[in-house]
Write a structure and sequence with these properties.
Belongs to the plant LTP family. Keywords: Disulfide bond, Lipid-binding, Signal, Transport. There is one protein chain. By secondary structure, the protein is mainly α. It has one domain: Plant lipid-transfer and hydrophobic proteins (Hydrophobic Seed Protein). 55% of the residues lie in helices and 3% in strands. It has 6 helices and 2 strands; from the N terminus they run αββααααα.
C-alpha cells in the first residue's frame, strides 16, 4: 500500500513538473505536456497498478491519435513519451498493449522503448 502511495506521489510530482515547465516543446499545436495530460487517465494502467485501461484512458488514446495527423507530430509525441515515460515508471509492455486494449487503430506510439525515427503516419 505504501509503495502505491509513493508511486502516485511520484507520478503527481512529475506531472506537475510537466505542467509548469515552459521548456517543453510544442509539437505542431500538440505540446508534450498536452500529450501526457491527455493520457493521464492511463497512468494507473501504464504503471501496473490497474489491470485494464479505463474508458477515459481509451478516449485519451483515441484523441491523441486523431490529433497526431502527420508523421512529424507522431515522431515528436513518440520522443516525448520516450523521454518522459521512464520517470513516470511506465511499463513498456503496458504501453504496447494500450492501443489494442482501447481498440484504437493507427495509434501514436507511447512505448518508451520505441525507435521514433521509424514512426510513420499509417
Amino acid at each position: 500500500m505504501e509503495k502505491k502511495v509513493m508511486m502516485k506521489m511520484n507520478m503527481e510530482a512529475v506531472l506537475l513538473l510537466f505542467l509548469v515547465s515552459n521548456t517543453i516543446k510544442s509539437v505542431h499545436g500538440v505540446t508534450c505536456t498536452e500529450a501526457i495530460s491527455t493520457l493521464d487517465p492511463c497512468l494507473p494502467f501504464l504503471i501496473g497498478t490497474e489491470p485494464a485501461p479505463t474508458e477515459p484512458c481509451c478516449l485519451g488514446v483515441e484523441r491523441l491519435s486523431n490529433e497526431a495527423y502527420t508523421k512529424e507530430i507522431r515522431r515528436e509525441i513518440c520522443e516525448c513519451f520516450k523521454k518522459y515515460g521512464p520517470p513516470l515508471c511506465v511499463e513498456p509492455e503496458k504501453a504496447k498493449q494500450l492501443p489494442g486494449l482501447c481498440h484504437v487503430e493507427n495509434p501514436v506510439p507511447i512505448d518508451p522503448s520505441m525507435d521514433c525515427s521509424t514512426v510513420t503516419k499509417n
